[in-house]
Design brief:
CATH architecture: Orthogonal Bundle
Helix content: over 70%
Oligomer: single chain
Number of helices: 4
Radius of gyration: 11 Å
Distance between the termini: 26 Å
Strand content: under 5%
CATH superfamily: lambda repressor-like DNA-binding domains
Largest sheet: none
Structural class: mainly alpha
Number of strands: 0
Order of helices and strands: HHHH
Length: 66
């Protein structure tokens, strides 16, 4: 599935806010700076393949926890 940078950022922001997480919390969880999460969410940059894998793991883990 292909995403543009803006839609990836919107999805990250949506799932993070649904879980009630701050950018700093998500950044710490996946091993990036909060500035990086902010740039993803604003559509300025997109996550690397490694970051996307970590985001998928985070989503599945947080989904399992409820």
């Amino acid at each position: 599935m292909l995403y543009n940078m803006e839609s990836i950022g919107e999805d990250i922001r949506h799932f993070r806010s649904v879980k009630g997480w701050l950018q700093e919390q998500l950044a710490r969880e996946i091993g990036v700076s909060w500035n990086t999460v902010q740039r993803w969410e604003s559509g300025k940059t997109k996550p690397s393949q490694l970051a996307m894998q970590k985001l998928k793991i985070w989503l599945s883990e947080t989904r399992d926890k409820g």
